[in-house]
Amino acid sequence: MSTADKQAIGARLHAEREAPPRRSREKWAILLRAAAGPDTPNLPSVESLADMIKQWERGTHVPGPIYRPLYARVTGKSEAEGHLADADFVEAVRRTNQDLVRLDALWGGHAVFPLALRAFRTANHILGAGTYEQKVERDLMAAAGEAGEITAWLAYDADRQAQSRQIVHEALMLSRHAGDRDMELFELTHLAMQSLHLHRPAEALRIATGVLDEDLPPRVAAIFEIRHGQALAQLNNEERALASFDKAKSALLGSITPRDPHWTWWVNETELTRHKATALTQLGQWGRAVPLHERVVEDCRGQFLYGKLDLAQLLNALVHVRDWHRAEEIISVIAGVVDSMSRGRTANLLRKIFDQIGRTDDAPSTVSDAASELSRLLPSAAQSH
Which residues contact 52 (CB under 8 A, 6 or more apart)? Predict the structure, then answer.
């Protein structure tokens, strides 16, 4: 650790001690000793510890692993805030990002979002406060940008749209400053996706068009063509919308290339089919959308999260075409997983579908009764949109 880094830590420790109520080094030493737990090794005397505090505040030395947890307990701050973030901290952020992605696959956005938000805010606060070793600045910004994208996705899945939109803008800024263009592109796909969800097609179109002018890796080009096509569908431009989906399909014909970023693993033909089906529904062509939704449900059979959302989207299409026999079959499948459903997009979509079924005169009583019962069992709607 450089002398400048040690002095920066010392200045922060001095400021902590001098903050009201101001305490002498001896008083601070007493507080640190009192914060020791049963597993803490024997600490030096108050006098010796006060002298160590003096050396730490001067930047001659920094608190070791025994003393950092004690500072965290006394100040009420996390241990990470008590010293400069280093390469180990950056690696911890990246490992946390991977863990959050795995947890998302198991439990969904609503359950995992609070954990992700805390992790992102911690990393972002450290960047904002400048409490990191200068040599890790770019890597820390890149890792924090990735954490922001993951957090924004989880908020989106939990149907916390306002928070998702705010967080992805923060993440985009971090990735851009870090020079992480691959992650920046991912965040732009998120912004376009969310614009579509919020029925802002012109905004989504601007985002997608601006990126498609670049020489993109195949799968990155495919996802932006998908966003482009969906935006055109919302704008009721069928010919150009379907042409965009054809371009996306062409981009997906080959295998993943070395140019494709790691995050494009999920950009495949099933994803294309899923969004083309949605585009057809936005064009009012529910009948053409049904077999595509059926194909996606079959492709995703056994998947915990997307399987539920895909079932809901298929049910929505079936209700619109009044295929009550098939709708009843899908409702029965949904009934088998409703107990494990969390708040978020899927639950909110199902609530709207069940309400529509209840207001449809020609819906059979068996379908409307089942929809009414399942609506009652759905978790409470998300509070923030």
Answer: 44, 61, 67
CA distance 54 to 31: 15
- Respond yes or no on whether the N-terminal peptide bond of residue 65 is cis (omega within 30° of 0): no
The string of pLDDT tens digits covering residues 112-162 is: 999 999 899 988 988 887 778 889 999 999 999 999 999 999 999 989 999
Residue 95: C-alpha distances to residues 48, 144, 332 (Å): 38, 12, 39
- Cα–chain center distance at 41: 40
Instruction: Write down the pTM of the prediction.
Output: 0.77
d(CA 314, CA 327): 8
Strand-pair partners of 85: 132
**Could you report the per-residue pLDDT of 206-233, keeping only the tens digit for each?**
999 999 999 999 999 999 999 999 999 9
Instruction: Identify the CATH assignment for 3-84 out of 1.10.10, 1.20.120, 1.10.260, 2.40.50.
Output: 1.10.260
Instruction: Quote the radius of gyration of the chain (alpha carbons, Å).
Output: 26
How many Cα atoms occupy the beta-carbon half-sphere of 71 within 13 Å? Answer: 25
Q: Which fold has domain 285-385?
A: 1.25.40
Instruction: Give tens-digit pLDDT for 232-288.
Output: 999 999 999 999 999 999 999 887 889 999 999 889 999 999 999 999 999 999 999
Q: Name the residue with tokens 């701050």.
A: 77
